[in-house]
Amino acid sequence: MKRVILVSLVMLAVMSATLSPLRAQEAGLKLPPYKKVKLKNGLTLLLMERHELPLISFELIVKTGSVADPSGKEGLAAVTAELLRKGTPMRSADKISEELDFVGATFGAGSNPDYTSASAEFVKKDLGSGLALLADLLENANFPQEEVGKALARRIDGIKAAKDQAQGVIRTYYNSYLYGGHPYGRPGGGDEKSLASISREDIVRFHRDYYVPDNSILAVVGDFNAGEMERAITDKLGGWVSRPVVEVKLPEPVPVKGKKLLLIDKPDSVQTFFMLGNLGVSRTNPDRVYINVVNTLFGGRFTSLINTELRIKSGLTYGANSFFDLRKVSGPFAISSFTRNATTEQALDMTLDVIKRFHENGVTDEQLKSAKSYIKGQFPPVDRDFRRSRF
Which end of the chain is less congested by CB atoms within 10 angstroms, N or C? Predict the structure, then answer.
């Protein structure tokens, strides 16, 4: 028996016929009031008071991600983010974990193609110590060689293990085939060869070049006074040294034309995993809200058209979905599923048939109402400060 990993790239105009009736309706979202401040060193602060619980959450965005990885050193942004909590001149990795655990706080960081993010949460009474720790990790991470070696070895082992499971690597293969030489086609988490080439000096340089205040946005939400929080952050992060940042220029990728096929054979497998798609849209595309509604119907929920046909009605799979990955420039759109080797052709034909019928028939009023209700149900409950999105 063989499992085949199949990626088929086809020109899809699935969403275009369904956008017109949605354009006529305005979507609005009213957020609670917040304060926007820019510190002298360039750090942008977004401060939102929410006093229901004695918690304070921090979310930092560094406006550089894996597309800035040097060629041959893919995975550098991801490793740099992972190692933020592995040591500073004042604190070892164990000391950092002890301090977080002692107050029941959290800290984590990661990267994607367009940006790097770090998040932390503290109880209000521990804000002083928590903010001091957060500032130390962001400004003074020193990336001990021992921790660098362990992180790289762990990631390489994980990539090797993932190759035994099709679902662990198919999206990497898909993006590489779709984007070719574009930066979005490179593996953000790296591969065995690129990770092995990363040195501690590379990590220190990436942190120095991109983890700077005028390349960062810090959002803070929770039980605090905005004026007092601004002063506290200025005290702890106001000395964060600002440096010029070279912006990574991304070319607009070129959509695939016609039909192309990438076939990856794994002889010991009994299932076929497949993805079909093409370029989607950027995260600033004016149609993104409408596209989200339409994709919810097509493949964005359990009762979607594609999952209904491939799972509920036919039993060919345990799950089928579709997604738009919104990025700075056009991100990928894909339909994803899996099935037994013997039913591969049937599942692919059925997927293409669902696309064809959806494109021809568009969306009914009942379907549209259902999708909008589903999306609105994911917003927080209405209260005096927060009004749900009105589709």
Answer: N
Q: Are residues 266 and 176 in the same domain?
A: no
Q: Which residues contact 39 (CB under 8 A, 6 or more apart)?
A: 45, 213, 233, 234, 237, 238
d(CA 126, CA 102): 10
Cβ neighbors of 38 (< 8 A, separation 6 or more) are 44, 45
Task: Note the helical H segments in 36-86.
Answer: 76-82
The predicted model scores a pTM of 0.86
Q: How far is CA 125 from the centre of its chain?
A: 31
pLDDT-based confidence at residue 32 (cuts at 50, 70, 90): confident
Domain membership flag for residue 137: yes
At which of 181, 211, 237 does a domain end?
A: 237
Q: Go through the chain and tell me how many residues it has.
A: 391
Name the one residue in this structure whose structure tokens are 């990590």.
203
Contact present, 358 and 305 (Cβ < 8 Å):
yes
Helix, strand and coil in the chain, % to nearest 5? 45, 20, 35
pLDDT digits (tens, 9 = 90+) for 199-230: 999 999 999 999 999 999 999 999 999 999 99
CB atoms within 10 A of CB 163: 12
Bridge partners of 220, per DSSP, are 47, 58
